[in-house]
TrEMBL record:
Designated name of the protein: Sirohydrochlorin ferrochelatase
Keyword Cytoplasm attributed: no
Molecular function in Gene Ontology: lyase activity; metal ion binding
Keyword field: Lyase, Metal-binding
Organism: Tepidibacillus fermentans
Keyword Metal-binding: yes
Gene3D superfamilies, per the entry: 3.40.50.1400
Amino acid sequence: MGKRGVWIIGHGSSNPRWLDYVDQMIAKLESPSPIVLSFLEKAEGRLIEDGIRQLRGFGIKEVFVIPLFVSSGSTHIAEIQEILSQYRQEFTFIFGSCMNDHPLVVQHIIDQAKELSDNCNQESLLMIAHGSDEDDFQQKWKEILESLTKQIKEKTNFLRVDYATFLPNTILKRLEGLKNTSKQILIVPLFLSKGIFTEERIPAMIQWYPVKYNGKAYLPNDWITEWIQEQIDQYYVKE
């Protein structure tokens, strides 16, 4: 086994504040070997090719890759895997998991819903996610969202707990199904950071319904650092 290292790969953003959030989060991590942070796009000088150069500079051969993504149903995961396949003769890549239905994600959603809630017994919770229009990835999204729904139902007393996606677009259908049985619908977005979906597209879809929504994304939150640290710790325990 060669020298090991951790490589965190995110989507990237043209918003410097988003990159700052991620940098601050990574700075809190503890690892016995180097941690490299790269992005798929929108981060000049910090792309995957730049990350490869950093790994070489550290002399790393076995790389634990943590995808900084909400769901393994994201097509970007396959995109990252395809790019890294070009370097498999030089490195051994071991992939960690996306956030998916991790207990920390469940707690985040519950916390966001409680922040919006006035009386959970008269309210429904609707999670809104990106989704995918490609069958295999859509199935992964479905499994993750159904797991989140089940866990949240078990831990809360909302009238109903449901989910909707942009791809395929099921948002209006879900809102129509909830509006007649709920005094209020609490909307929690399942997006890593604020952006066009949380600030424009979701508000446009929900504006005519009895909803409460604050647009808060996963970042910035300390639980994401905890989620990454847990994966790093588990990786090194396997020595």
